[in-house]
TrEMBL record:
Organism of origin: Shewanella colwelliana (Alteromonas colwelliana)
InterPro entries for this protein: AB_hydrolase_fold, UPF0227, UPF0227/Esterase_YqiA
Protein name, entry field: UPF0227 protein BEL05_17170
Taxonomic lineage: Bacteria, Pseudomonadati, Pseudomonadota, Gammaproteobacteria, Alteromonadales
Family from the record: Belongs to the UPF0227 family.
Coiled coil residues, start to end: none
Pfam families, per database record: UPF0227 (PF05728)
Length: 179
């Protein structure tokens, strides 16, 4: 089972396309949708929703995959549920770059301060990070610097921030899910 966390643009047709592509990794791909606008409510909702989805599956190696803001959530919710995650162009600092886009971006800082201390160190090796060299929204080099001590980082030379096609990385995602 793959749990797919969409990015800030929840209604983008690209989400359906990425989920379709992920069916080459696992035919059970489930959308985990959330409001994107209310972080504290999203956190509680996502914890409950992922717990419910995991109970409905017998997959011994479930995987959470998120793009952009969805990667922020996939990493944290995956850690709290002890499942591996794939982070695609993760938005690691929404409290800084979501100002004016959501109601209370400062809630992300609050969530970060309440999360398990040094959670990435405790989650070492349980994440795969795919970054676009040409991300026009986020600083992918800063993301690589922050995440590379904990997760394998893979660079993509063609995709932009929304990462329209995962095709070049599907075999790597499949191998990561299986190991």
């Amino acid at each position: 089972m793959i749990l797919y966390f969409h990015g800030f643009d929840a209604t983008s047709p690209g989400n359906h396309e990425k989920m379709r592509q992920l069916q080459f990794v696992d035919n059970d791909v489930r959308l985990v949708s959330y409001s994107t606008l209310h972080p504290k409510h999203d956190m509680q909702y996502l914890l409950n929703e992922v717990s419910r989805q995991l109970k409905q599956s017998d997959d011994p190696n479930p995987l959470a995959i998120g793009v952009g803001l969805g990667a922020y959530w996939a990493e944290r919710i995956g850690f709290l549920n002890q499942i591996k995650t794939v982070l695609v162009n993760p938005n690691l600092h929404p409290q800084d770059n979501m100002v004016g886009k959501i109601d209370r971006p400062e809630e992300y800082a609050d969530i970060g301060s309440k999360c398990v201390s040094q959670f990435r160190d405790k989650n070492r090796g349980k994440g795969l990070c795919i970054l676009s060299r040409h991300d026009e929204v986020l600083d992918s080099h800063a993301s690589a610097e922050l995440l590379s001590p904990y997760y394998e980082v893979v660079w993509d030379e063609e995709q932009r921030h929304k990462f329209a096609s995962l095709a070049a990385h599907l075999s790597q995602i499949k191998a990561f899910k299986a190991k």
